[in-house]
Request: fold
Amino acid sequence: MHRTRLWLLSSTALFLFAATQSAFAASAVALSGQVSSAKEGAMEGVLVTAKREGSNISVTVVSDDKGRYQFPAGRLEPGKYNLKIRAIGYVLDGPRDISVTAGGAAADLKLAPTTNIVPQLTNSDWLMSIPGTE
Reply:
């Protein structure tokens, strides 16, 4: 009986420890900030992409309804990253490069209206723009 209680208590403690550790790891943020423009203020739905120098892998997140974006710590290792955005009609006004440390980093992204929208459109965007019956 004593062993069963001890085993049950140990198992419960181990489970609670593991659950709090995974919750903490899930909430850790490597890079965060807000996307905004002078014209619209905080911008929702902007794709923010970070690509580490010397790597061919990019990680992309989407800004929320308040313009905030967050890259989870498990997706970005410490290092130098190049930032890009995708928001039709806008270009990144700054900053473009950021250093992510083990403690995380923050970068508020300012967007400016583009003067040439053509390079931003995908094949799907072009097809959707063709006039015709709906």
In short: Confidence is low (pLDDT under 50) at residues 19-26.
